[in-house]
Amino acid sequence: MSRIRGKDTAPELIVRRLLHAMGYRFRLHVSHLPGRPDVVLPKYRTIVFVHGCFWHRHSCAAAYMPKTRPSFWQAKFDSNVGRDRRHRRALVSAGWKVIVVWECQTSGEVLTRLARRLKRLLDGASEARLALRRAKLGGCGSTW
Ligand code: ZN
Questions:
Q1: pTM here?
Q2: Which of 56, 92, 106, 126 could bond to 51 as cystine, CB 3.0-4.6 Å?
């Protein structure tokens, strides 16, 4: 939904501030990657999309169906969800870990939970990469 969604939406800014405060460094809107991901953490080979619940159809109350022109909306939503799925598949097959953060997970009271989730996923990604590197070196875990 790049036409409607601004590049720097409030939920995205919240996620960026959160990641930054947690010490993670990232790049923004990397245009050569599928879906032009909002936040890219090269060191963790991880991508974070911050999705609006309505447009990207989260399983929460914000993803309601408008009362007028339901078939128009349904087609629009299907197209958004299909595009998200294609981007995700392309990124995953290129070796990226993809994290989706929903707009409703960026409000005040659930932000701590989001922070914990991001930390767990990112540190997990980092450990997996280290393990892979060790395995490639064929060593016993030591890099020297
Ligand atoms: Zn939601």
A1: 0.82
A2: 56
